[in-house]
Amino acid sequence: MVSVLFMLFSILFCVCLITANVLETKQIQVGAISLTGGLIVFPVSYIINDCVCEVWGYRKARLLIWVGFLMNFFFVSLGALCDWIPGASYWTNDAGFHAIFGLAPRIAAASFIAFLVGSFVNAYVMSRMKIRDGGRHFSSRAIWSTVLGESADSLIFFPLALSGIVPTVELFKLMIWQVLLKTVYEIIVLPITICVVKALKDHEGEDVYDEGISYNVLKIFNL
């Protein structure tokens, strides 16, 4: 069984992943740092992952991650299909549409793999640290799970997607900045995350500890 709040968090999680795909197509600059627009929303998916794992446990987080993956894959596939179909004779925005929806297969594959690994690392670290700490130190595990999850995501995505295209030194810089800024993002919104987690626990009457569960990522419906 899943609650209405879990369902709403799942919807928001999927929306964040799909939105990040679209925003990633824009390059932005903050001072001397070049980034992608996806940075605005993608860290929110990790915050939702933290909330779900903290309140409902790893098994619900595992379901959330796979649902998010499938919905994102569905969206990207439809975008690619529509991009492939020839435009009407009066259509003049092929280049703009392709820039947003015409993801190269290599980049799409790298994105999907990195998302799965990073999200599961995040959920696993949250779960194990909660058991180890007896439910204390939520802030610490929220931050460390993000650092390790985002690091795994970046270590997979950038080499797979951009190796041979972007110089190795620049790839390394991109990975460092992505992890650093997403972690800072998490720290800045941490007070809000703490309030949300407390409200969820109070409303749901749940505070799951993952004692004796299987962390097999393929046991999707083992709730």
From TrEMBL:
The primary location reported for this protein is: membrane
Tell me which InterPro entries the record gives.
YhhQ
Tell me the GO molecular function terms: transmembrane transporter activity
The cellular location(s) given in this protein's UniProt record come to: Cell membrane
State if Membrane is listed as a keyword.
Answer: yes
TM helices/strands, residue ranges: 30-51, 63-87, 107-126, 147-169, 175-197
Keyword line: Cell membrane, Membrane, Transmembrane, Transmembrane helix, Transport
A GO-annotated cellular component: plasma membrane
- What residue ranges carry the coiled-coil annotation? none
Q: How does it sit in the membrane?
A: Multi-pass membrane protein
What Pfam families does the annotation carry?
Vut_1
Is the Transmembrane keyword given for this protein? Answer: yes
The domain of life is Bacteria
Q: What does this protein do?
A: Involved in the import of queuosine (Q) precursors, required for Q precursor salvage.
Q: Family assignment?
A: Belongs to the vitamin uptake transporter (VUT/ECF) (TC 2.A.88) family. Q precursor transporter subfamily.
Give the matching NCBIfam families: queuosine precursor transporter
Q: What is this protein called?
A: Probable queuosine precursor transporter
The organism named in the record is Segatella baroniae B14
